[in-house]
């Protein structure tokens, strides 16, 4: 049985790229294996952990459960597409990571939050952070990183 392939044009980190994909290929798989963008990590592969989070159209999406063909026509931003953003610096300054595996997903999620709501409430921050899981650091440092950006410190 021949597997159907599609040529899709994706806008990734400000660049248009043409890539051939199978209908069922996830955005995570395409980013990592076909485009060499390995910042988004495979974790649970079912949308629970957030290690694979990228921005699609300015909002965080779990790339492990989004088909690559669904991302066509949207701006996709991976951790590789962020350059010295305030939240990246804050994660370093506040020691908001340990092993680093989940960090790109958290940074993308926090960056998207701050782009969409520059002064979020504590409840909004907690809600957004609940979509990502870290097993080796405290969410306190991640929260402090977000707060330091909001407060301009």
Q: How many strand elements?
A: 5
Give the C-level CATH assignment of the largest domain. Alpha Beta
- Outline: elongated
How many whole angstroms does the radius of gyration measure?
16 Å
Query: What is the N-to-C succession of helices and strands?
Result: EEHEEEHHHH
List keywords for this structure.
single chain; 153 residues; alpha+beta; Ubiquitin-like (UB roll); 2 domains; 5-stranded mixed sheet; 18% strand
Descriptive report:
By secondary structure, the protein is an alpha+beta fold. The protein has two domains: 5-81, Beta-grasp domain (Ubiquitin-like (UB roll)), CATH 3.10.20.30; 86-151, [2Fe-2S]-binding domain (DNA polymerase, domain 1), CATH 1.10.150. The chain is 33% helix and 18% strand. The chain is built from five helices and five strands; from the N terminus they run ββαβββαααα. A five-stranded mixed beta sheet has the order 2-1-5-3-4, with helices on both faces. β3 and β4 form a beta hairpin. α2 (86-93) crosses α5 (139-150). 39% of the residues are buried.
């Amino acid at each position: 049985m021949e597997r159907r392939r599609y040529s899709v044009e994706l806008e990734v980190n400000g660049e248009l790229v043409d890539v051939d994909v199978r209908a069922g290929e996830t955005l995570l798989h395409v980013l990592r294996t076909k485009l060499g963008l390995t910042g988004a990590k495979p974790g649970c592969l079912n949308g629970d952990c957030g290690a694979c989070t990228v921005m699609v159209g300015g909002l965080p999406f779990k790339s492990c459960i989004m088909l690559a063909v669904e991302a066509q026509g949207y701006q996709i931003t991976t951790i590789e597409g962020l350059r010295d953003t305030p939240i990246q610096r804050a994660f370093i300054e506040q020691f908001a990571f340990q092993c680093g595996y989940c960090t790109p997903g958290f940074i993308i999620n926090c960056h998207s939050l701050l782009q969409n709501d520059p002064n979020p409430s504590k409840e909004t921050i907690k809600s957004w952070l609940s979509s990502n899981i870290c097993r080796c650091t405290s969410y306190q440092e991640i929260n402090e990183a977000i707060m330091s950006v909001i407060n301009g410190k």
